[in-house]
Amino acid sequence: MTAKNTERSISIDTPSVPVAELQRFITLVLTATGMPPEDADTVGAIMAQADARGADAHGVFRLPAYVKRIRAGGINLRPDMRIVEERAATALLDGDNAMGHLVMKRATDLAIEKARRAGIGWVGTRHSNHAGPAGLYARMPLVHGMIGIYMAVGSANHMPPWGGIDMLLSTNPIAIAVPAASRPPIVLDMATTTAAYGKVKALAQRGQTMPEGWMVGRDGKPLLDPKRSDEGFLLPIGGAKGYGLALMFGILAGTLNGAAFGRDVVDFNKDYKSVTNTGQAVLAIDVTAFMPMAQFEACIDDIWTQMKSSELLPGAGEIRLPGEQSAITYEDRMRDGVPVHAELRAALDALAESVGVAPIA
Length: 361
Known about the structure:
This protein is of the alpha+beta class. It has 10 helices and 12 strands. Helix content is 36%, strand content 16%. α1 (19-32) packs antiparallel against α2. The longest helix has 19 residues, at 100-118. The chain is globular.
């Protein structure tokens, strides 16, 4: 089958793979590398959801790198995740260098549990790993009538402090998910850089160029070739303001948890053996601690209407709310499958052969 053009960077003629088949393949590969089947199934489901939501740089695309890190001993497949500090509404979870997806699933479940009792739950993590797109974890509290917030220290430094050239900051993303009644939830999922580094890697794999404004070289001139990304750095959103956000999110998700930040961040794109000590934070907020759920959701629906009915700027097509395109993409891909371009398919076929499992059907 052929996918609809749900993302501009992917051709309308790119062959698609059903989401369930992607999940099956990811789970098989991870199991073949030694991950316990139950854990592999959890990670496979989360990674396939990333692709279904349109986060193509955080789904099956990451599987070869994850396997490389597992084989190098950089990820603990038999972790002893444990709570090291806890109060009524907060907790600090040590992931024992497990797959980040497993750590964040445990942390988010714990935040939801605490929010049920205290109205809010804030759980920080340390000794975690790359966990995929921020939005997936912010979305998890939605089904419990809660607002979700997620922050993380990125898994490699690709940005200097504003005005500098030393790589001391990462993309340090944030995601906020808010439930609605008859509308899709409003979900902001963004890096504090103009583009997430995963998108740079995806363009490099496909042999495409980057838009101007994503990266600059150390001479300050635009850098357009993603294969030369080591020669420059990502730009923050909004100039110095984006740098400030990256700094503060890094402190909240990293330093506060005893996780790596600044010079201590390990580049998981190049170093597959060292423990990354990745830090994240997830918050769940019980809406009913502030107002009745139906009243709040009606208010969010009204906000949707207000935003969508705003008079358009000349030349503008339409007004979209955060998460609206993701919701459309999700419907399309659950029905039609996930586009898998030829370069990625070749990498996944090679991976399947190397671990001894059947390739994607």
